[in-house]
Amino acid sequence: MRCSLLLTAALLIAPALARAEEKTAETEAEPAAPAIEIPVAIGQSVRGIRLPHYDKGGDKLSLRLNADSAERASETKFSFQGLRIEIFDESADKPAMEVVLDRAVFDRDTNLLTSENRAVIRGETFQITGSRLEFDSNTRSSRILGPVSMTISQMEQAAAP
Description:
There is one protein chain. By secondary structure, this protein is of the alpha+beta class. The protein has one domain: Sandwich (lipopolysaccharide transport protein A fold), CATH 2.60.450. The chain is 19% helix and 45% strand. The chain contains 2 helices and 10 strands; from the N terminus they run αββββββββββα. The radius of gyration is 17 Å and the shape is globular.
């Protein structure tokens, strides 16, 4: 039973990973979206910040950062507390996925967001939890590290032809 669940999960995830690899190859030459702008002065701390980020054309919401607090440490480094990133696909009404981090640092030079503590990635039918996370806002891809657990729900519906 456990083996069949793992095989089913692998079959469900494999096409998405293949598409992600294709997109990564396409986006290495050119970023998928413009740089994330965070309107906070160096040394300033703000509470309850919500930052929308639009695709390259500027007309479609691609992700939204929500944080309990944010602080700009330097020209390129930002620290966040209680960060929740909503990632949108087709509709801006409901996020396709969200990333939840207690503490994180964003580097504007690399467009990398890193967290050295518990990270949760949630989708409609899955949840992945790990001890660290790296999120590349150029490619909209995440790398979750440490002891990682994944829970897939509604597998019967997803596996049905």
